[in-house]
């Protein structure tokens, strides 16, 4: 089993920045993808960014491209999401997840990000 624990988040003003971290523990895997998702009240969960643990290649949703940066620290088994130029529409619960198969099969507990206008 794998455990994912998010930290960071909180309250920021529009135009500000926040940083999220997600630490993985438990079973050690060699190849997987880490992703950040978010879900706002009344809306469906959406994928925000992904990173390949092996190659480091990244992908971003159009809504965050150029503002958010996903990165990883392989030694610490931690993935980060740096969020800059925040907008009120970025307000959501943010989740990190790990995909070891064809689906994201491990999830963190989530952390709240609130952006005030």
Keywords:
0% helix, globular, 4-stranded antiparallel β-sheet, mainly beta
Provide an overview of this structure:
By secondary structure, the chain is mainly beta. It has no helices and 11 strands. Strands 2, 4, 5, 6, 9, 10 and 11 form a 7-stranded mixed β-sheet that branches. Strands 1-3-8-7 form a 4-stranded antiparallel β-sheet, with no helix packed on it. Strand 4 and strand 5 (46-52) form a beta hairpin. It is globular and about 40 Å long. It starts with a strand and ends with a strand.
How would you sum up this structure in a few lines?
The protein is an all-beta fold and 117 residues long.
Strand content range: over 45%
How would you characterize the largest beta sheet?
7 strands, mixed
Rounded mean pLDDT is: 95
Encode the helix/strand succession as letters.
EEEEEEEEEEE
Global outline: globular
| SS-derived structural category | mainly beta
Determine the N-to-C terminus distance: 40 Å
């Amino acid at each position: 089993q794998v455990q994912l624990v998010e930290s960071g988040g909180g309250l920021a003003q529009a135009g500000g920045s926040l940083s999220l971290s997600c630490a993985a523990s438990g079973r050690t895997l060699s190849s997987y993808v880490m992703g950040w998702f978010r879900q706002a009240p009344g809306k469906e969960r959406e994928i925000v960014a992904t990173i390949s643990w092996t190659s480091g290649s990244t992908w971003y949703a159009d809504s965050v491209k150029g503002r958010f940066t996903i990165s990883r620290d392989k030694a610490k088994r931690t993935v980060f999401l740096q969020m800059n130029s925040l907008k009120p529409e970025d307000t959501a619960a943010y989740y990190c997840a790990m995909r070891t198969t064809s689906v994201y099969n491990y999830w963190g507990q989530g952390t709240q990000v609130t952006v005030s206008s």
